[in-house]
Structures are given as C-alpha cells and as structure tokens.
Write a structure and sequence with these properties.
By secondary structure, the protein is of the alpha/beta class. Helix content is 39%, strand content 25%. Strands 3-2-1-4-13-14-15-16 form an eight-stranded mixed sheet. A four-stranded parallel sheet has the order 5-6-7-8, sandwiched between helices.
Length: 438
C-alpha cells in the first residue's frame, strides 16, 4: 500500500486527451500536486491509501476548464452598457468608464471577483488581457488559479499608461516581477490591429521573441475592422500581420470572424492558435468564427468567454453549449463539433494555445492536478447515457461542485475555499454604487 495525498474515486473520468477517452468507475491518484496514476477504482483501493479520499459516485471528473480569452476586471462593468455594436459600445461606454474607474485597486477587486465566478463554474486557468497586470497577479496569489496575464499595448492613453513607452515599461515591470511564478505567466497583449500601429506591433514581436512569450490579439473581430484596414493599410489585418512577421505559432488570434480563403491559408501555414468567443460575437453581432473550416485545416481552436461586459458571464460550461450549437447551425450540419470535441476546445486546446499542454489541459499522468467534479446525478442531467453530452448540452454551471488547481482545493461542495464570497459581494455592490451614477 502506497500513501498519497489524494484519491479521487469517480463514476466517470473524462480525460480530454487527444482521443478524449471516458473511463467508468476509475480513480485519480494525486500526489505532490500532480496526477500520479489513473486506474480502476477497485485497483486504486487495493494499492493506495490517501490523506484525503474523495468519493464522487454521481460525478464526472475532468480537467479544469481553460478560458482562453477574457478581461477579468470587466466583471464590474457587467450589464453597464448592453445591446450595442462593438465600436459604439467601446467608444461611448466601455473606454470612458475604464478611463474614469480603472486603477490598481479596481483591477485587484474586480479580478478577484471574476475568479470567484470562474472557479464556481469549473475554470482553473484563464488568459487575461487588461490593465494593471500586477493587480491581477496579486489576485491570483489569493485565488490560487493558473493565469496567463497580458502586457497590454494600445495606442492611446488609458488609466494605466499614457505613451507607448510607458505601456511597454509597465508591461516589462510586470514580466520581471512574475517571471518565475508558479501559476502566473506573462503574455504580450497588443489590443487589436486597429488600435496598435506597425511600430508597436514590431516591438511586441521583438519582446515576445526575446523572452519566448505568447502574443494575444483581437483579430478579425468585425467586418468594420477589415474595412478600416483596407482603407488605412490597403490590406486585410491578417495580411498586415503576416507582413509584420506576427503570424507565427506564438500568436493567439482571438475572434477570427470573416475569414476568406487567403486568410485561411495564411492561418493554416503559420500554426496560429484561434480562440473562439461565440457568445461575445453573437451579443455584439460581430460575426461567426468558422471553427469547422479551421479544424479541417488542422488549426488549434480554443474557447474563451471574452469579458463579462460583452458576454455577460464567464461561464465556460454555457460557452461550450453555445459554441457547439453555433457550429452546427452555421455549417448546416448537426455532426459539426460533437460534445466530446468541444470539451477539448475548453481544455486541451486551450492549454496548447497557451503553450502549457505539457502541464495541464487533460487528465494525464504527470500533469498538474487541475481537476473539476461535475455532479450529473441531478434532475437536470438524468439519465446519464453519455456524460460528455450531459455536460455540454444539459448541465448548468451550478453542477460544478469541486475544483482543484495544482492539487489545491479551490471549491469544496460549492464552497469557495480560497475566497470570501460574502466579502466579494459587498465589494462588488460598493463599486457599482460609484460606477453607476445616473
Ligand atoms: Zn476581448
């Protein structure tokens, strides 16, 4: 008998590995923050004793969800301005509110609040793009999630920085401070082709190459963006990025609607990862990311919620359902994007996009114990013929009961273990009183 940290006995294990095998009555053996073994429960009971033993007879256990694109601190702007087109929403509502309210304190409070929402819906890792990255990283230290945090670059003054030099300097300050952190990783985050000039995009590229960092960019989000690029640069944004040398496997291209055949060929040849954010794209009526075309060209597709001001939640369970339905409808084919595959978009593919698939994204030996439990033995999801289908097509996020990140318990039977739910609600209400002054 070996003694280990944690034994998790489950009715179903959804591995989210390449073939996404689903195992019944199996157990996860967790030791030293990692998955040490996966084996039938009767064998696990014979061979291991554990400091903590968890029984999940009505649950599916799967890897923690990876939200591949979000703006955490925008949770405090949720519902502030809805039912508008992207540029009206940004120019007349979001950017003015950000200029007035965003600060280190705002980003810390709002990010912590957003992490509570994400943990409660089964997300263990997120890829954030916002301002004051050190504030977000400080919140990560409290919450215990895995985080990729952007060094944002945008060609106009914001509450965080005024000049391009200041954006890069503040970004590098964050990078230097967190470069050896266990859970936080810096990324470059030029906002979009229409808000960042060639010179700054080339600086982004140089920094990313020098320090081996990923680059996040909103790309081909709307038709207006492409029309504006054709007017200003005489080429489509993807062509422009290719000329600048940014279309490489470093790039995480967010949104990617309105893709023509030339765009597709460039994306396929460059091994860019794409992040599909269907709910934000639908709400802003931006367009549809052609995930099946990308898939047919072997392009890695991850899933993100975008910020809570354009979604309006950070619910990856709901996002999976929307992504699957939209792919089916837009392709006129119900076989497009089956449940087992969209589960990979929300896990393994997200890890691939972030360059951490050797660490997380599936239940595999040696990977980090980033694990969630979803209770399927409920009125809403019975009977369970196929657990993957129940999670994607029927379950609600409230059915996520338990969450571990790097072996640490973040949610236990729906209770947040690292965050104070009542205190987070008080702060959110207090900030809203200041922000929403009519
Ligand atoms: Zn976004």
């Amino acid at each position: 008998m070996k003694t280990v940290d944690t034994l998790i006995h489950a009715r179903w294990l959804i591995t989210c590995e390449e073939e996404n095998k689903i195992l019944e009555n199996h157990s996860l053996v967790v030791n030293d923050k990692k998955i040490m073994a996966i084996l039938p429960t009767h064998e696990a009971q014979k061979n291991y004793t554990a400091t903590h033993t968890e029984n999940f007879p009505g649950h599916a256990i799967m890897p923690g969800l990876i939200n591949a694109h979000t703006h955490l601190a925008m949770n405090y702007f949720r519902g502030l301005a809805d039912d508008l087109a992207l540029m009206d929403w940004l120019n007349n509502h979001i950017w003015p509110a950000e200029k007035k309210w965003v600060s280190h304190e705002f980003v810390y409070d709002a990010s912590l609040f957003a992490m509570a929402e994400m943990i409660r819906s089964g997300t263990t890792c997120f890829n954030d793009m916002y301002f004051f990255p050190i504030a977000t990283a400080e919140a990560v230290d409290i919450a215990g999630m895995r985080a990729h945090i952007g060094m944002t670059v945008i060609d106009f003054p914001t509450a965080w920085a005024t000049t391009s030099e200041e954006y890069f300097a503040l970004g590098m300050e964050f990078f230097e401070k967190y470069k050896n952190h266990d859970l936080v990783k810096a990324t470059l985050a030029p906002h979009a082709p229409y808000t960042v000039c060639d010179k700054n995009l080339l600086t982004v590229k140089d920094i990313a190459e020098k320090y081996d960092l990923k680059i996040n960019l909103h790309l081909h989000e709307t038709r207006d963006e492409i029309a504006q690029s054709l007017t200003q640069y005489k080429m489509r944004p993807i062509q422009r990025l290719q000329q600048l040398g940014l279309m490489t496997s470093r790039l995480i291209a967010i949104h990617m609607t309105d893709i023509n055949e030339e765009d597709l060929a460039i994306v396929a040849a460059s091994h860019v990862s794409v992040v599909n954010c269907p709910e934000s794209n639908m709400k802003l009526a931006s367009g549809i990311c052609p995930v099946i075309k990308f898939k047919n060209h072997g392009i890695n597709i991850a899933l993100g919620t975008d910020g809570a001001a354009s979604n309006n939640d950070l619910n990856m369970i709901g996002e999976m359902r929307t992504a699957a339905f939209l792919a089916k409808l837009s392709n006129g084919n119900p076989e497009s994007l089956p449940a087992k595959e969209i589960l990979k978009h929300a896990t393994l593919n997200g890890a691939k996009a972030l360059g951490i698939d050797h660490l997380t994204g599936s239940l595999s030996l040696g990977k980090s114990a980033d694990i969630i439990a979803i209770h399927l033995d409920e009125i809403e999801t019975l009977p369970v013929y196929h657990p993957a289908s129940q999670i994607v097509y029927a379950a609600g996020r409230h059915q996520v009961t338990d969450v571990w990140c790097r072996g640490k318990r973040l949610l236990k039977n729906r209770e947040l273990m690292t965050l104070d739910e009542a205190a987070l609600k008080v702060k959110a209400r207090d900030w809203a009183k200041k922000i929403f002054v009519v």
